[in-house]
Amino acid sequence: MNLKAMLAALRGVTAYKDLLAQPVMKRAMELLSCFAHGDGLGGLEAYTGLFYQLRLEGQPGLGHWLGEALRWSEGPYPLLAQRGDRDPALEQAAKLDISAFELLASVDCDKWLSHLGRLLDSDYQGVLTSLPRWQRGIPFSFDLLTAAYREEGAGQFARYRAFVWEGGALIPVEHPDCPASEQLLGYDGQRAEVERNTRLLMEGKYVNNVLLYGESGTGKSATVKHLLTLPGMEELRLIEADKADLGGLPALIRRLEGRRQKFVVFIDDLTFDRDDPTYSVLKTILEGGVERRPQNVAVYATSNRRHLVRQTISERAGDEMDRSETIREKTSLADRFGLRVLFQGLSKAEFLALVDMLADQHGVKLEREELHARAVAWERFHGAQTPRTALQFILSL
C-alpha cells in the first residue's frame, strides 16, 4: 500500500473536514504520518490509540466508524443533499473524500502490523503479534450516503428526535422518556388542542406558541413529550431547555431555520421571579424582537402559574402610581403564548373514577367503598385530585 499517497488523499479532504477533527480520524492520521516518516514507536502508539478509540465509541472497525460518521455528518455536502440542491464542485469534492475514506477502511490490520514490524526491531515482535485487530469492511459508498441524505436527512437532527439545551450546547437524548397513549390519564380535550397545533406545525404552517398551565401532576409535561410517539410526527424534534439556559436560545433558534425538521422548544415548569433577567429574553423569543421566529419552530412551556411571574400581596397593594401598569407588564408574558391550555384538578367523581380504572389495571382487589375511602384519605394528606396522586395511591397499596 502507498501510505504517502493515502496520507496525501486524506489531507486533501475538503467536503468532510468535520470528520478529520474527530478522535478516531486523528489517530488514523497519526498512524499514517508515523509510517510515512519511519517512526515505528509513534506508529505503535497510534495503532493502539486507534483501536482504543474505536472500542470507546462502540465500533468494531474503522470502516464501520467511517460509515456512521459520514452518515451523520453535518458538513456542507450532506446538508446540500438533504435540501435536494445541486453543486457540481461540492459533489465532486465529496466523491473524492469518500474514495479516500474507502481506501483507508480497506487496509487490513495485518498490513498495518506488518509495516510496523519492518520499522521496529525484534524486541517488539512479540508485542505486535499479540495486538488486537479491528474488523475490516466498507459499509458505505457515495451513492448510498447521498440517497440517505435525501430521503432521511443529515446530521444530528436526522439521527435523534430529542435534545437537551444545556450550557449553550445541544445534547442528543438517545432514549427520550416519551409516555405512550395508554399511560396518559384524562384531559383528552386539552391534549387534542396541543396535538392540533403541532400537526399544523408539521404541515409547515406558522403556529401559536403554547402554554400548558394548571395544577401539578395533571400531565402537562407528559402531553408535550407524548407528541413524539404520534403517527405523522416523524419529523418533529423536541428540544428541552431549562429556564437558566434561555440566554442562548435565540442563537439556537436561528440555527434551526431552514431545516426540514420541525422543532418544539420545550421549557418545563416555567416561573419567573420579579427581577429575573431571563424574563425579557423569553419575551423577545416569543414575540417582539427584530427577528421573526422561524416557521418550523414553536415554543411550548408548562407552568403551575397562569401568569408565570410570581407576585406578592404587597406588590398588588403597593403605593406605586403605575402599579396597574407594572402588574400588566408582568402578566403580559403569558399572553404572548397564542394557545393557553388549562389543566385543572379533577372533580371528586372524576378522581375516584380514575382510581377505579387504575385499580383494575393493577389488580387491586379492595371493595370499591373501602378503596374510595382510602383514596380520599390519601389525597387529603398527599396531594390534590390529579392523575399523579391517583397513581401514587394505587402504587402504595
Query: What radius of gyration results from the CA coordinates?
Result: 29 Å
Strand count:
7
How much helix is in the residues? 40-55%
Uncertain residue segments:
312-316
Sketch the topology as an H/E string, one letter per element: HHHHHHHHHHHEEHEHEHEHEHHEHHH
Strand content: 5-15%
* Intertermini distance: 70 Å
Identify the overall geometry.
elongated
Number of helices: 20
Strand line-up of the largest beta sheet: 2-1-4-5-6-3-7
| Whole-number mean pLDDT | 88
Category from helices, strands and their pairing: alpha/beta
Largest sheet entry: 7 strands, mixed
What does this structure look like?
By secondary structure, this protein is of the alpha/beta class. The chain contains 20 helices and seven strands. It has a seven-stranded mixed sheet with strand order 2-1-4-5-6-3-7. Helix 1 crosses helix 3. The radius of gyration is 29 Å and the shape is elongated. Residues 312-316 have low confidence and may be disordered.
Helix-strand layout with pairing:
Layout (H helix, E strand, L loop, with lengths): L2 H9 L5 H4 L2 H14 L3 H17 L5 H10 L4 H8 L4 H18 L3 H11 L5 H6 L11 H11 L3 H4 L2 E5 L2 E5 L14 H15 L7 E5 L5 H7 L9 E6 L7 H8 L5 E6 L10 H9 L10 E7 L9 H4 L6 H13 L3 E5 L4 H14 L6 H15 L4 H10 L1
Parallel strand pairs: 1-4, 3-6, 3-7, 4-5, 5-6
Antiparallel strand pairs: 1-2
